[in-house]
Specification:
mainly alpha; 80 residues; 3 helices
Length: 80
């Protein structure tokens, strides 16, 4: 009877470990995957172009804004 319990326990443990092997967690190197996709290069170039356009707009707004900062205190003193 004792040997039978040991055999049953061993069978249960063996079946339990078989299920654990089926549940493996994988690893994916997403950086290497994204480098190989041609659409990523197109998206990067589109983003670079957009960044240049937005930087030009920001510098234009900044150039237009700086003189108004200097003029505003003068206008404020004239209004009072």
């Amino acid at each position: 009877m004792k040997n039978f319990q040991i055999v049953i326990f061993a069978v249960i443990c063996t079946l339990g470990t078989l299920n654990l092997n089926a549940q493996k967690i994988g690893y994916l190197n997403s950086q290497a995957l994204l480098v190989d996709i041609p659409e990523v290069k197109q998206a990067d170039s589109a983003l670079d172009d957009l960044q240049k356009v937005l930087q030009k707009k920001a510098s234009k707004w900044s150039r237009n804004y700086k003189p108004s900062i200097k003029i505003w205190p003068k206008r404020k003193s004239k209004v009072r």
